[in-house]
Amino acid sequence: MLAKPRPPEAEVEALAEAASLDALYGHLAPERIIERALRDQFAGEIAAVSSFGADSAVLLSMIASVDRTLPVIFLDTGKHFGETLSYRDALIADFGLTDVRVITPDEAALEQRDPDGNLHQSDTDACCAIRKVEPLARGIEPFRAWFTGRKRFQAATRAELAAFESVGPRIRINPLARWTTADQADYMRSHALRENPLVAYGYLSIGCFPCTQPVQPGEDARSGRWAGQAKVECGIHLSGLDRSLTDASL
Predict the structure, then answer these.
(1) Is position 115 within any domain?
(2) Total domains, the chain
(3) What is the rounded CA–CA span in Å between residue 103 and residue 94?
(4) Mean pLDDT computed over 220-240
């Protein structure tokens, strides 16, 4: 039996670092996790990734309370709801964010693989790879770590989500991983945060408009994404993200 190839040294180090950080800080309140990461562990080497979706205001509010100049990466897939783009601009103003970086798909890749903009109808994985995975890989390339707003309650695939994870040689930080829907609602209410207008119509997880629909009663928050398909993640949160930096097929 052939031995499995050993991962590069930087990936091994990141894996150990993520485990250590999760043991030390994973139990802390989200605000403390953010402070530790921004001021101690990854000062000057960290960003946030935000979809400006259904519950993005919570993480952005916490980040802004610590450092409004933190780079925030937004993927403009070209398929967003108009409400999402308006909400993005409103939250930027609300929190005084000064470094929101809009990352777009590679034009050559779109021209080659999705010239009519209809790839999502035949191959959602390929569409996400072009419009989300590869752009995000470019967006995070300058950084050693990044924040996300993912939470365990959002889907069964996130039930064991850790506060600190490794992705290739980088660290992905999920400060809100252990939060419940009640925690989120309480924070939104107590801080009088603006809500994405699509939430009122049942959109509890908001992605690109062709592949997002309202959530049905009793279903998890992400059930409206790629409804009727086995697909549950676009790929930006999966372990293969880092490979897209060098994989010409993405």
Answers:
(1) yes
(2) 1
(3) 21
(4) 58
**Cα pseudo-dihedral 250, 147, 181, 207, rounded to 10:** -30
Burial of 157 (0-12, 13-18, 19+ CB in 10 A): middle
- Condensed to tens digits (0 to 9), the pLDDT of residues 98-147 reads 999 999 999 999 999 999 999 988 998 999 999 999 999 999 999 999 99
Looking at the domain assignment, is residue 78 inside a domain? yes
> Measured between alpha carbons, how far is 214 from 227 in angstroms, rounded to an integer?
10
DSSP letters, 132-197, are IIHHHHHHHTT-SEEE----GGG-GGGTT--SEEEETTEEEE-TTTT--HHHHHHHHHHTTPPPPG
Q: Does some domain include residue 73? A: yes
Distances (CA, A) of 21 to 16, 26, 55, 172: 9, 7, 25, 11
CB 191 within 8 A of CB 61: yes
Separation CA 202–CA 194 (nearest Å) = 16
Domain that holds residue 132: 9-197
Q: Which residues contact 169 (CB under 8 A, 6 or more apart)?
A: 8, 10, 11, 13, 14, 242
Residue 153 lies in a domain: yes
- In the chain, the amino acid numbered 234 is C
The pLDDT tens digits for 43-98 are 999 999 999 998 899 999 999 999 999 999 999 999 999 999 999 999 999 999 99
Please enumerate in sequence order all residues whose Cβ is within 8 A of that of 160, keeping only pairs 6 or more positions apart, or say none. 152
CATH code (residue 19): 3.40.50.620
Average pLDDT, rounded, for the chain: 88
Choice between 231 and 186, residue whose per-residue pLDDT is larger: 186
Q: Which residues are catalytic?
A: 234
Q: Which amino acid, residue 220?
A: D
